[in-house]
Amino acid sequence: MNINIRNAVINNIHNMNTQELQDLVQDSIKGDEKLLPGLGVLFEVIWENSPQSERNQMIQTLQQNIAANPKPSPFA
């Protein structure tokens, strides 16, 4: 059985209110790595619906914060 992850994530969050979405994001960040693809879908929705100026700010924030921290080991 093939599952479309994007559609599954959007289906699961379709009726969530703002507090539920915030809790989902926070739980996903703190939780198991298996939840990370869902965050990717959420980021895609944000990205697709943001003006270029906000996209530029997101990229700048990512670059600055990733560069400011030590490079992690993928085996940790």
Overall description:
This is Small, acid-soluble spore protein I. InterPro entries: SspI. One of its GO terms (biological process) is asexual sporulation. The protein contains 4 helices and no strands. With 76 residues, it is mostly helical. The protein has one domain (5-67). α1 packs across α3. The model has no long low-confidence stretch (mean pLDDT 94).
Strand-helix topology:
Elements: H1 5-13, H2 18-30, H3 36-48, H4 52-67
Query: What is the element string, with H for helices and E for strands?
Result: HHHH
Strand content: under 5%
Q: What low-confidence regions span 5 or more consecutive residues with pLDDT below 50?
A: none
Distance linking N and C termini: 32 Å
- Number of separate strands: 0
Total helical elements: 4
> Given the C-alpha coordinates, what overall shape results?
globular
User: Helix/strand/pairing class, anyone?
Assistant: mainly alpha
Major sheet description: none
Computed over alpha carbons, the radius of gyration is 15 Å
pLDDT averaged over residues: 94
Quick gist of this model?
InterPro entries: SspI. The chain has 76 residues and is an all-alpha fold.
Q: Which key features would you list for this structure?
A:
single chain, 76 residues, mainly alpha, 4 helices, globular, Small, acid-soluble spore protein I, sporulation, SspI
